[in-house]
Specification:
Blueprint lengths: L3 E4 L5 H14 L11 H13 L4 E6 L2 E10 L9 E8 L8 H15 L4 E7 L3 H9 L3 E12 L2 E11 L2
Parallel strand pairs: 4-5
Antiparallel strand pairs: 1-2, 2-3, 3-4, 5-7, 6-7
Helix pairs in contact: 1-2
Length: 165
């Protein structure tokens, strides 16, 4: 499967939105309750890119099949070398190496930007994502109880981290 990884553009946001909204409605991988609007997704895209954070897409035959980005982990100045990332793959294209290709690219971009730590926050029941991150070199750094509430139940968050240096 030939995948092209490139910087996202505003024109990609409807495809990104389709991926995001599927995850919001059908999973606990995004702790939002309601599907996003295109205007909100566009605003989130601009928020990342205006601060020089990457927002990349995976493209196959001209179709957006996944995306990845990172941004601030927390907003205190001492956290400026730590970022929190997100990688999502369209439901019809999972298991084809797209997620690992996107995450590898984000890791390389973070290293180029002289960042020190990359964090992921994953729902504790999402064993696939936790295992995926461990295969990519991330270590589980913590398990926080009942940090979210979705689909009528409390959800735990697992923090994974990768030291980039």
């Amino acid at each position: 499967m030939s995948i092209n990884i490139r910087q996202a553009t505003i024109e990609d946001m409807p495809s990104v939105l389709e991926i995001v909204n599927h995850e919001i409605v059908h999973s606990t991988s995004i702790y939002d309750y309601e599907p996003r609007t295109l205007s909100l997704q566009n605003a989130l895209f601009h928020e990342k890119t205006e601060r020089n954070f990457p927002f990349i897409v995976a493209e196959k035959n001209g179709i957006i099949v996944g995306f990845g980005t990172y941004g601030p982990f927390r907003f205190k100045e001492a956290y400026k070398f730590t970022v929190e990332h997100s990688v999502y793959v369209h439901k019809d294209y999972t298991g084809n190496g797209i997620g690992s290709t996107l995450l590898k690219e984000l890791i390389e971009l973070a290293k180029l930007n002289k960042l020190h730590t990359m964090i992921g926050v994953i729902d504790s029941e999402n064993r696939g994502s936790i295992s995926f991150h461990e295969r990519m070199g991330f270590k589980v750094g913590g398990h926080l109880k009942e940090t979210g509430f979705k689909f009528g139940k409390w959800l735990d968050s697992v923090f994974v981290q990768l030291l980039l240096e």
